[in-house]
Design brief:
Length: 260
C-alpha cells in the first residue's frame, strides 16, 4: 500500500510541476522562438508537415501542438489537454493507434527520461509505416555544454553506465540521465546496433542544434530579459556555430531514425 501511495504522490507532484513548466514555456517568447526553430529543423525534410500522421511522446510541457495542430499529443501523466495518456514503454500494446499507421513519432528531451530508451524505440517501430521516422532531440555533450550540463543543470549526468538504461527510476520527471541518448548515438556503437532490426542505421541522421541559445532564453526555470529582436538576431549565429564547431559548442542534437 505504501508503494502505491508513494507512486501516486510522485505522479501528483510531477503533474503539478508539468503544469507550472507548461505555463512558463508559454510565457517565454524567446523560448517559444527556440522551439519554433527546432521544429522547423526537425521537419525540414517534409514538404507538408501538416499532412503527416504524427505522434509526440512526452507532450506534457511541449509546445509542439501550437505549431503543428495535427500532432497527437501524449504523456504518461494524466493531463486534460492531451490526446492520449499511456506509458510509452508499452507503445506496441497501444490499441488507440494502429500498427504501421504513423509517419512520424517525435520526442524532444524525452529519451533521457526513459528507463529503457532502446526498448522503447524498438517497440515504437511497430506503429510506424515502413519508411516512417522517429525524430528525437536530446542534449549533446561538447566542451562547452558538458560544463553547463554537469555543473549548472539539475538533471543527472552519468557517462559510466554499463547498460543503456536508467538504474534508479522515481517519477517521469525525476528520473533522468541526460548523457544516455548521446552515449547511444555517438559513443556506444554496440548499443546503437540493438536498433538495427527495426531501423535502417545506414540512413541514420545526427544533426547538431544550437549552442547557447537555449540557455539564453533562461530555459523553463527562468526567463532572461533579452529583447526578442536581439535574441532572434543572435539565434542564427548560435545555430551556425553549433554546426561549424559541434565538438566545442553544440548543446543539442536531433536524431532521425527510419523504420525498415
Amino acid at each position: 500500500m505504501s508503494n502505491t501511495i508513494t507512486v501516486q504522490s510522485d505522479k501528483a507532484k510531477d503533474r503539478a510541476v508539468t503544469l507550472r513548466n507548461r505555463a512558463r514555456v508559454g510565457g517565454n517568447q524567446n523560448l517559444l522562438f527556440w522551439y519554433r526553430e527546432l521544429y522547423r529543423d526537425q521537419f525540414r525534410n517534409f514538404p507538408n508537415p501538416a499532412a503527416l500522421s504524427m505522434l509526440e511522446i512526452g507532450s506534457g510541457t511541449s509546445p509542439l501542438k501550437q505549431f503543428h495542430s495535427n500532432v497527437l499529443s501524449s504523456d504518461v501523466l494524466d493531463l486534460d489537454y492531451l490526446d492520449l495518456v499511456f506509458d510509452c514503454h508499452e507503445i506496441d500494446k497501444l490499441g488507440a493507434i494502429e500498427d504501421n499507421s504513423l509517419d512520424v513519432i517525435t520526442l524532444t528531451n524525452v529519451l533521457h527520461h526513459l528507463k529503457s530508451p532502446i526498448a522503447f524505440l524498438n517497440r515504437a517501430a511497430s506503429k510506424l509505416k515502413s519508411g516512417g521516422n522517429v525524430i528525437a532531440t536530446e542534449p549533446f555533450f561538447s566542451v562547452l555544454s558538458t560544463l553547463i550540463f554537469k555543473y549548472l543543470h539539475h538533471e543527472m549526468v552519468d557517462f559510466q553506465i554499463s547498460e543503456p538504461e536508467l538504474v534508479h527510476v522515481q517519477g517521469p520527471l525525476a528520473s533522468a540521465n541526460i548523457a544516455l541518448p548521446w552515449l547511444i548515438f555517438f559513443r556506444k556503437h554496440e548499443w546503437l546496433r540493438r536498433l538495427n532490426a527495426s531501423y535502417d542505421l545506414e540512413s541514420l541522421s545526427l544533426r547538431p542544434f544550437s549552442s547557447l541559445s537555449y540557455m539564453l532564453t533562461g530555459g523553463i526555470s527562468h526567463r532572461l530579459p533579452i529583447p526578442g529582436f536581439i535574441y532572434s538576431a543572435l539565434f542564427p549565429i548560435d545555430l551556425a556555430l553549433s554546426r561549424s564547431f559541434p565538438s566545442f559548442c553544440a548543446a543539442f542534437f536531433t536524431v532521425t531514425l527510419t523504420r525498415r
